[in-house]
Design a protein that fits this description.
By secondary structure, the protein is an alpha+beta fold. Helices cover 19% and strands 28% of the residues. Strands 6, 7, 8, 13, 14, 16, 17 and 22 form an eight-stranded mixed β-sheet that branches.
Length: 429
């Protein structure tokens, strides 16, 4: 059982199962479904959203940083951790029981049911990593049974550059991608058509806050200062297209058609109580000095539960909720987000506020902790039988995928990252 929350005058924030107690306070971009539909920056509290623009109008412009008043989360993120921490302390005070601002700020609350969430910020660049050694090993066994891990895996945080323009927010509808697929017969020309092996990837996304100048690497000791917060990420994957195109340069059309994130960015401060040592066996080679520090070894990991559920069209028709297929944890990450930041910038690459890092599919050591259908079905060879009798190897049109993430501990208040939901639509020919 989690520690009892300090509480808030926003009653819904005190429910033990809420994702958004006063200890969380994540940022997002929203618009009202009716009335003034302009985009605003909001802070989730219980089942409400604190409208930063309205809060400034009520309490005075100086009460809220200008970037938040203007709906510019990127600008706020770029200010760095000290500005973020100072405003977090102020909002916590506003929303605490007995706050002098409570009566006035009620007018700045908007029910989450009355808003349409948008991408929380402008995402300039997107890099997807491969941080779960369990996922890398499981996938490697499908293709290289005798040597599932490539020699560089334990030495370098592997990643590829994705496409920021096709990232959407929870609720996104994914059109089944088309592309070249290897012919069944060796030597035959490839086919062009709709993906038949559409998959999900259960990931966590990390947003960059303050960036770095071109040519100015970020040392591991300061990497955490450049992280703003985390979200849930589904990096949809066309496995059959990927198998044909990925050599010699890696993922391309199999990945760039869509990625989906949850709408709220949970700050690093909210995640502080859930930090754990980085996962690395004593038998493994230790990271090179430029991506190693005592602090990162002792608290670079995060204890965060990750879940993947599926709802078929028939399940929706019959009124059945999504069925959970896997449950994993971010603590299984072999590479930490700080190591990713440092390695990414080690050649002088300039990171910018709003850049998004994906953790890569975050699978655990047990079969039930697999973060993709590719793993759960042994490459499509062992179908999953759902509770209603349907089966799946890969996603079918009409399927809805729900990813969730939350942190809970006996020493800290439970917080959540919200849901990351996407639905598969038929290919457009």
């Amino acid at each position: 059982m989690s520690k009892k929350s300090q509480g808030s005058w926003v009653e819904s924030a005190n429910h033990p199962e809420t994702d958004f107690p006063i200890e969380n306070l994540p940022y997002g971009m929203f618009s009202r479904k009716t009335g003034d539909t302009s985009a605003r920056i909001g802070i989730a509290i219980g089942n409400q959203v604190l409208d930063c623009t309205l809060a400034a109008e009520i309490l005075g412009a100086d009460a809220v940083p200008g970037f938040l008043r203007q709906g510019d989360l990127n600008g706020f993120m770029a200010q760095g951790a000290s500005v973020r921490k100072a405003f977090r302390a102020k909002v916590t005070r506003w929303l605490s029981p007995g706050a002098a601002e409570a009566s006035a700020l009620r007018a700045a609350l908007v029910p989450q049911s009355d808003v349409q969430m948008q991408l929380p910020c402008a995402i300039g660049d997107y890099t997807d990593f491969y941080a779960s050694i369990h996922h890398a090993t499981a996938v490697g066994k499908l293709f290289r049974p005798d040597a599932p891990l490539l020699p560089n895996y334990k030495w370098v945080p592997i990643g590829y550059h994705g496409r920021g323009s096709s990232i959407g927010v929870s609720g996104q509808q994914i059109v089944r991608p088309t592309g070249q697929i290897k012919a069944a017969a060796d030597g035959a020309p490839p086919e062009f058509g709709a993906c038949r092996r559409l998959d999900i990837e259960l990931e966590v996304g990390a947003f960059i806050g303050a960036g770095n100048a071109l040519g100015d690497p970020i040392p591991i000791a300061h990497a955490e200062d450049h992280l703003f917060g985390l979200c849930v990420l589904n990096d949809w994957s066309a496995r059959d297209i990927q198998a044909w195109e990925y050599q010699p340069l890696g993922p391309f059309l199999a990945k760039n058609f869509a990625s989906t994130i949850s709408p709220w960015i949970v700050t690093m401060e909210a995640l502080e109580p859930f930090r754990v040592p980085a996962e690395r066996s004593a038998d493994d080679p230790q990271p090179l000095p430029y991506i190693s520090s005592p602090q990162d070894r002792s608290r670079g990991g995060i204890d965060m539960v990750l879940e993947f559920s599926l709802q078929t069209e028939k399940m929706r028709h019959d009124g059945q909720p999504p069925q959970r297929l896997a449950k994993s944890n971010l603590r299984y990450a072999y590479w930490t987000f700080a190591q990713m930041v440092t390695h990414h910038s080690s050649n002088g690459c300039n990171l910018q506020a709003g850049d998004l890092f994906g953790s890569g599919t975050m699978s655990g050591p047990a079969p039930s902790e697999a973060g993709s259908l590719l793993e759960l079905t042994s490459g499509g060879k062992v179908p999953i039988t759902l509770a209603n009798g349907e089966s799946r190897t890969f996603l079918q049109d009409g399927d809805v995928v729900v990813l969730k993430a939350y942190c809970e501990s006996s020493d800290a208040v439970r917080i959540g990252l919200g849901e990351c939901v996407g639905q598969i639509l038929a290919a457009r020919h």
